[in-house]
Automatic annotation (TrEMBL):
<dbReference type="InterPro" id="IPR029016">
    <property type="entry name" value="GAF-like_dom_sf"/>
</dbReference>
<feature type="domain" description="EAL">
    <location>
        <begin position="132"/>
        <end position="374"/>
    </location>
</feature>
<dbReference type="InterPro" id="IPR050706">
    <property type="entry name" value="Cyclic-di-GMP_PDE-like"/>
</dbReference>
<dbReference type="Pfam" id="PF00563">
    <property type="entry name" value="EAL"/>
</dbReference>
<dbReference type="InterPro" id="IPR035919">
    <property type="entry name" value="EAL_sf"/>
</dbReference>
<dbReference type="GO" id="GO:0071111">
    <property type="term" value="F:cyclic-guanylate-specific phosphodiesterase activity"/>
</dbReference>
<protein>
    <recommendedName>
        <fullName>EAL domain-containing protein</fullName>
    </recommendedName>
</protein>
<dbReference type="InterPro" id="IPR001633">
    <property type="entry name" value="EAL_dom"/>
</dbReference>
Amino acid sequence: MDIGFISEFTENDRVFRFTDGETLRNPIAVGGADPLRQSFCHYVAAGLMPGLLQDAREDPVARGLSATDALPVGAHLSVPLRYADGTAYGTLCCFSFTPDRTLTGRDLNVLRLCADVVSAVLQKERSASLDLEARRARIADILASRAIDVVYQPVYRTSDGRLMAFEALSRFRAAPERAPDLWFAEAAEVGLLEELEFLAAALALRGLERIDPSIKLTLNLSPSSVLSPAFARMFEGAPLRRVVVELTEHAEVPCYAALRAALAPLRARGLRLAIDDVGAGHATFRHVLDLAPELIKLDRSLIAGIDGDSARRALADALTIYGRRIGSEVVAEGVETWGEYAVLKEIGVTRVQGYLLGRPQPLDAACGLPLTLVGLGGGG
């Protein structure tokens, strides 16, 4: 056959999605379209024309179509393409410019086998597209209904047990029930991460009015959100000296210079920067080196069992010394035992947070916490 192509049926047109044949003689252009009801494809798919024509001019329907003489179409083979539920996608067709009396049902069966392969690929793409639409709709529903509850986890100073900050964390009122990081990961996959992070941050900022003025609030944002034009707008009117942006790794940093430029005006007005998950991977070390944060947050994987693990202790000690030399506070996340706390205080970690000291809690409960945790400054 001279020309082969795959077409997709839209409401009124047949759109060409793939074509193959001798370039100089191929009248089919990918992306081109023509009226569906004037095509061989429509009549074959509707069962009004046979899938195999040795000579198109011998079929009464084909003979009446303008394409038969205009292309021209001599011999023609066509097989409908359908999704698994039977919905029509279009057709897989091939034709020659002249009749061909050698074509048989065997040739049509070969094309049917090819169509089965094409249909399987189309079904996979369709399933992925439907899944993406469903996940995007799920995140869009959260944004529309503002279905996020903010909880606040306390951060204490090791030297005297003083309550220094709350980290604002999100809890989602939506199905399926799952960890917040999975919601943010899904938002990133469907292109709505910035919107979801800004909603969570805006809801958290409301709590500043009720939190003691001496206490700071830490907000989690990804590099892509910091680079967004909406980043600066979100903080208009906010008391920046009470705000810490904790940089997460939901997105890769394409350009540290651009990130520094986005942060600079707000940092000049008092905003502080924290780098999360330090010690968990090389990317966070790059953040520390290139962004000069005021706070370095040691990852929970480094803290867990540190009182019984010399390797963890050595790395935490080295990071704490480094932080001290560059003028950064060092915060240990995920502290769950007094043994862990004692080691962290001994090596010079300046701030701690974790279930041992306080779980994430609603704003009312957070506002009721004492400003100093008795016994913490003395080592518990």
